[in-house]
Amino acid sequence: MRIVLGVGGGIAAYKVASLLRLFTEAGHNVTVIPTEAASRFVGVATWEALSGNPVSNSVFDDVPSVNHVRLGHEADLIVVAPATADLLARAAHGIANDLLTNTLLMASGPVLMAPAMHTEMWQHAATQANVETLRSRGVTVLEPASGRLTGSDSGPGRLPEPEAIFNAAMALTQSLAEASEGQPESLAGLSTTEVLPLAGRIVTISAGGTREPLDPVRFLGNRSSGKQGVALAVAALNAGATVRLIAAHMDVPAPPGVELVEVETALQLGEAVLRAAAGSDVVIMSAAVADFRPSAVSETKIKKRDDTDDPVITLVRNPDILKEVVEFRNTSSRSQLIVGFAAETGDADGDVLDYATAKLQRKGCDLLVVNHVGEGKVFGREHNSVVILSRAGSEPQSASGSKADVASAVIDRISTELSRVYPRA
Asked: In this predicted model, what pLDDT tens digit does every residue of 40-97 receive, in sequence order?
């Protein structure tokens, strides 16, 4: 794929070198167009060395090839990062006073812009109006990340991580290719949220099964393989999200592009989830978390001897992580969607949905994805069947098929709920 990578004049330009490497290592042919200001942060030699292509920011270089027209026409994708307030304004108003803005005016393929600036600049009415103008024309403008900015400032305005921009760009081209089959004229009418409904959102997902140690050799565990959690992470990445994956024991590798934190016990998972949830728009608790752990852990292997009694293992309750996440959200008044998973079996006192409905009200999460588990069901399998319950009282939604199919259904439902309850500013 032929990619034009535009680089704006912000301190975050240094991160774009990593983004360029991701594109080239994936086999794409990248032409970098830095603005004049960007060249003050990262030199032309760096872009040429990493891309393997000549670099210019002037419409008067290589005049015979008519670069200011050719590059936009030939590009399969244009990515601008960092997209500064100035670049967003010039793009929105059609100002073409350098090679990059000329190329944007000539673009015939998808355009993705990753903003980065100080919080006040991002939240200014002029910038927000420019973003809405660009989005209304079919440009994908990601939401900036929140966090430490230049100096001691902190807030929304950070450039999303290079992996997140790369994943959003790949998902955008794939979604547009699928949407354009047989109707290429429809591409210009697709909005950012129609193509990437979680663009700019941060999603924390827990996955896998926790292990509670008995001694240096043994542990209490469960049958979770982590496959459904990984499928959710992939589906969220494909929807444009930045994904934080808190992984307990899994039989499958974490997908590339996630921010991975590996844990073992329920206590470790709880700490990691609460830390990640603090800056997330969505929290999905799909991990199989142990309800109990041994009250004491032997420092040496517990021996099996004929001259001693069988050991008695005393269990204590683990914290209710899902409930803690909900309480943290409620006390901090965060705009956050929380999704729980429930692995249930029925008995003489009630069926699976009876227990799941009671759990949904008890936990206080927004959505609960319910599995009917048992021998030969769900854990470690390639297929799944779930029911999605809503605390708001909407009709239960069923989803089944491969775990990727179920993950797509869950992420679609989350996207719908998020846009309804917590719409973008």
From this structure: 999 999 999 999 999 988 776 666 555 667 787 788 899 999 999 999 999 999 999 9
Residue among 108, 35, 106, 113 nearest 68 (CA): 106
Q: What is the pTM of this model?
A: 0.67
Annotation says 222 is catalytic: yes
CA 237 to chain centre: 5
Within 180-320, residue ranges assigned H as helices are 192-195, 227-238, 266-277
Question: What backbone torsions phi and psi does residue 138 show, to the nearest 5 degrees?
Answer: 95, 5
Tokens of 187: 């591409």
Domains defined along the chain, listed by start: 2-190 (3.40.50.1950), 202-421 (3.40.50.10300)
Active-site option among 222, 238, 318, 371 = 222
C-alpha distances out from residue 324 to 49, 107, 254, 327, 338, Å: 49, 48, 25, 5, 11
Phi, psi of 76 (to 5 degrees): -80, -20
Nearest-5° Cα angle at 127, 125 to 131: 115
